[in-house]
Design a protein that fits this description.
Blueprint: H1 3-25, H2 28-48, H3 56-76, H4 80-98, H5 107-132, H6 140-185
Amino acid sequence: MTPVRSAARVLLSGIFVLSGVRNLANPEPLVAKAKPVTDRVTPLLERADPRLPTDPRTLIRVNAAAQLAGGLLLATGRCTRPAAAVLAASLVPTTLAGHPFWSVDDPTDRRNQQTHFLKNIGLLGGLLLAAVDTQGRPGVGWRTRRAVDDGLRSVDRGRRSVGRAVRTARRDARIAVRSATIGRQLPR
């Protein structure tokens, strides 16, 4: 891993580790803000599995645990792509619940919430880049395309080889037919 990648991942993960620890230890201040988002998510969770938690406090803790674990994994360079994807997924409800600038009336507070919303969107962009970063090595998509192309080339070589064999067999058959015909016509 290059020093730039290492530093970028540590810098990107810092906010998630810190907020994950804070929100895991004390979710109470966020419950009221999270309620509108959790109320919308609750029917989906109940449909997916009735055993899943649906109360805002527990969902905040689950989100905080995901952010803490994802942040630590990203910072240490372990499972960086899945960790970045988990962090990106956890950032969406956090941003929607924490910074709904569209519902704030006070212009100063609205600008403040809009700034934080846009900051989180920027973090989301960085996480998406980290989620697809292959560290200079070929990714799964490239390797798949390469394998398909190699297979197609192999099939094409086989097709050409069979074509040559068929042409050779036809030529040999014509020669054999002519030889047999000429051999019968010669006097003995």
